[in-house]
Amino acid sequence: MTPSNSHFSGGPDPPRCIERSYGATTPPSLAIVQTIAVMEDVDPMDAREFGLRLYDHVDPEALDRLLEDPDGSASVSLDLSVENRSRYAVQLHENGRLVVRKSG
Engineered SS bond to 76: which of 8, 36, 52, 92, CB 3.0-4.6 Å? Predict the structure, then answer.
């Protein structure tokens, strides 16, 4: 269930840090949800059920529009929580790179 184009550190437990790419086939908002689902060891289709509602933190469509310009220079940092169980530091870079670190 690891996202494509990803690199993570860790052992048999779910990873605490994942780096992956996003782009035309996987927009940033979807890449965030997929990556955190892997880190929570749940199916991304069950994201709402495990407590991740990205729209509680940011407008997903606006985020995707902000980062869709291939010549843009935007980068975004977010702190997300999954129902007060886990916290995540999310960094999206203009070059299509996403880094998600579990911080709690």
Answer: 92
* Tens digit of each residue's pLDDT (9 = 90 or more) over 64-91: 998 887 666 789 999 998 876 789 999 9
Quick one: tokens of 65? 């529009």
pTM: predicted TM-score of the whole model, two decimal places: 0.82
Q: In angstroms, rounded to a whole number, what is the distance separating the alpha carbons of residues 89 and 104?
A: 10
Q: How far apart are CA 38 and CA 95, in angstroms?
A: 22
- Contact call for residues 60 and 54 (beta carbons, < 8 A): yes
Closest listed residue to residue 19, CA positions, set 97, 77, 104: 97
Lay out the sheet containing 97-102: strands in order across.
6-9, 17-21, 97-102, 86-92, 76-82
Confirm if 37 and 47 have CB atoms less than 8 A apart: yes
